[in-house]
Write a structure and sequence with these properties.
This is Sigma-70 family RNA polymerase sigma factor. With 177 residues, the protein is mostly helical. The protein has eight helices and no strands. Helix 1 crosses helix 5.
């Protein structure tokens, strides 16, 4: 498979998950998409460095590095975007599920970065503890403790936050499983 075809495959397969990961650093969907595009360009030029391993952890590491580099370059600028992500409402059940996940994702984003990054990679991107550890460059034990502490902080936040109403029970149930 040619490098261009490999890149297209990665883009089709991993873009959405990588944008969510980048959003956890940038807090802006447009900037997150830009960081992912930059990461794909770097990945294309560095494909020879990928040695018989899954592409996603390698791409995620590049995205994280791109986000951190961009933050260091523009630390004086503070740009925020309050436009919510557009969701397609295909049915009532799908809408309710997406709304619950969106509320949970928003709550995760209020956690300190070391907890939110681990929780997004593990719960939203479905990486294993081992893969999460490789992506962020820490031990598996650190990932497990950050997941545990992150769940506890999130549980306390959701229980204290009255605006979640019934969403608390669904979210806390999700975290308990």
């Amino acid at each position: 498979m040619a490098n261009v075809e490999v890149l297209e495959n990665w883009m089709n397969t991993h873009t959405q998950a990588l944008v969510r990961l980048a959003y956890s650093y940038t807090q802006d969907w447009s900037t997150a998409e830009d960081r992912v595009q930059d990461a794909f360009i770097k990945a294309y030029h560095s494909m020879s460095q990928l040695k018989n391993q899954h592409a996603y952890p390698w791409l995620a590491r590049i995205v994280i590095n791109e986000c951190k580099a961009a933050y260091r370059k523009s630390w004086r600028e503070y740009i925020t975007s309050l436009l919510p992500e557009q969701k397609v409402k295909s049915s009532e059940d799908t809408f309710i599920q997406k709304q619950s996940l969106e509320e949970l994702h928003d709550a995760v984003m209020t956690l300190p970065e070391r907890f939110s990054t681990v929780m997004i990679l593990y719960y939203f991107d479905n990486l294993s503890v081992e893969e999460t550890a490789k992506v962020i460059g820490v031990s598996q034990g650190t990932v497990k403790s950050r997941l545990s502490r992150g769940r506890e902080y999130l549980r306390m936040k959701l229980e204290e936050d009255a605006k979640y109403g019934e969403g608390i029970k669904r979210s806390v149930t999700f975290l308990s499983s």
